[in-house]
Amino acid sequence: MPTPSRSQRLPLLPVNMSALAKGWGFENGIYARMAGHDVTRFRVGLRRFVALTRPEYVEHIVFEHPDRYEKSIDFAVVDGAIGVGIFSDNGDSWKQHRKILNPMFTRKHLENVYDLMLEPVVKAVDALPQQPAEIEMNDIMVELTLDIVGNAIFNSDFKKFFPDDLGWWITGGLTEVMTFARFIMVAKPPGWLDKPFWALLHSSAPVPPPLSNLQKAMKKVLGGVDAVIADRIANPTDTPDVLNLMIKAMNDGTMTPERVRSEAAVGMLAGHETTATTMSYMWHLLSQNPWARDRMLEEVDTVLEGRAPTAGDLRNLPWTTACVDEAMRLYPPVWFSPRTALQDDVIGGHHIKAGTTVILPTYLIHRDPRWWPNPEVFDPSRFMPGAAANRSRGAYFPFSGGPRTCIGRNLAIMETTLMAALFSQTHTFETVPGQNMDPLALPSLRPSHGLRMIAYPRA
Ligand code: HEM
Q1: Is the overall model pTM greater than 0.70, yes or no?
Q2: CATH number at residue 117
Q3: Rounded to the nearest whole angstrom, what is the distance from the C-alpha of residue 78 to the centroid of ligand 1?
Q4: In terms of Cα–Cα distance, which of 101, 211, 116, 202 is closest to 157?
C-alpha cells in the first residue's frame, strides 16, 4: 500500500501501455496504483479519468449528487451485446423502466416468491455427498444462483430453455466483454460503427475469434430469453412475477418487446454471477476462520432447530448475514463503478471537469486501512447490528447506493442468507489445501481457479 496522498497523477505513457496490455489490470495495473491515494488522475487515449478512494467522495457521487453523473461509455458494450436495460441505461428512460420494475424487488414482494427460491437450495443441499468428499463449490454456487434468480424473477423453471453449458458460455462471454472494455477504455469507437458492428454479431454471419465466442454467448443467452418470453406469451399465467409485469407493460405500450428481452437478460446476468462469487468467497473465508463458522453453525442450529428457514427467520440470523457482508467487503463482486461527470463538479476541493470518467474502486476502498482496521482480516462482527453506526455509507457499498442502488439487493441478501443457513445445517466445508483463491476481475469478480472444497456431513 503506497503512502497516502491527497492527489496523484499517473504518467501518460506507462498508463496507456498498461491500459492496452491489461485494461484495468486488477493486481498490478492501473487499478492497483490507485490504492491509498484520495484522488488519482490519468489519461488513457482521449479519455480523462479520475479515481476517488475517500468514502465521503463516494457519498458525494452515489448518494448526494447522483444527478451530476451517469453510467459511463464503458457500459455501451452491455447495450450492444444484450440490448439497453436498466443496468446500463441513463436519464428519463432509466427512470421510467426502473419505476416499472421496482415493485417486484421489494422485500414484501420477494417473500411471496420465497418458496420458489427455497426449492432449488433444498435440492442442492440434498445432492451434497453423504460421506466426506471433494466438490467444486464455485460450480455449485453458479448453477444454484442461476436457478434461484430464474425462479424468483421469472417464476418458472426457466433453465430448461437454456443449454446445459449456459454458465460456461456466460463466463466466456464476460471474458470477451472485458476485451471490449479495454478497447473502449483506450479509444471510444466512432458512433457510426456501433450499429453495423453489433448487427453483425447478432446475425449468424461468421466472425473471427475472439468475436465468435461473444457471438455464441449472446446467442445462447438471448435465444433462451426469447424462448422463456415466447413460452409465457403462449401459456399465460396470473403469477405476480417480473416477466408478467413486463409483458403487461409491453401490452400497455410502456415497454417495447426489445426492452422486455434486454431486461430479462440483464436480470439473469447481473443476478447470478455476483451472488455466486459472494457465496464462494464466504465458504472459503469460513473454512479459513473456523471460529466464525462455529458461531454461524450455532446460530443456525439455535434459530432453526433443524427445520428449513422461513422468510421471517432470515432476519434472526444476524451472524450468518454478517458473514455474507464481510465476504462482500473483502471480495466485492462488482469491484468498481465507472461514471461520467455530466457537469463540472468540486469534490473535497478537487475539480472534476464535465466529461471526466470517475472511477469508484470498491475493492480498494473496502480494504483501505484508513477506513477498515486490519482490513485483510475476516471479521463479520464489523457488520453485527450497531457496529456500522459511525461508518460512512461510502466505505462499504457492495450494492452501490442512492437511486442507482442494485435493484436485486433484497433478493441477494435473502438468497445468500438462505443458502448459507441451509448448507450449514447439514455440512461444513474445507477448502482443499493449495487452492488458488486469487480473484479474476471480469465485469464481476470471481475465483480465478474455481473453488475445490471437501464437504463434511455434520453429525
Ligand atoms: C451479491 C449480489 C449482488 C451484488 C454484489 C450486486 C451489486 C450491484 C452493484 C454494485 C450495482 C451497481 C453497478 C454500478 O452502479 O455500476 C448493481 C446494479 C444492478 N444489479 Fe446487482 N448485485 C447483486 C445481485 C443482483 C441480483 C440478484 C439482481 C437481480 C435481478 C441484480 C440486478 C441488478 C440490476 C438490474 C442493476 C442495475 C440497477 C440500476 O442501475 O438501476 N443484482 N448491482
Answers
A1: yes
A2: 1.10.630.10
A3: 14
A4: 116
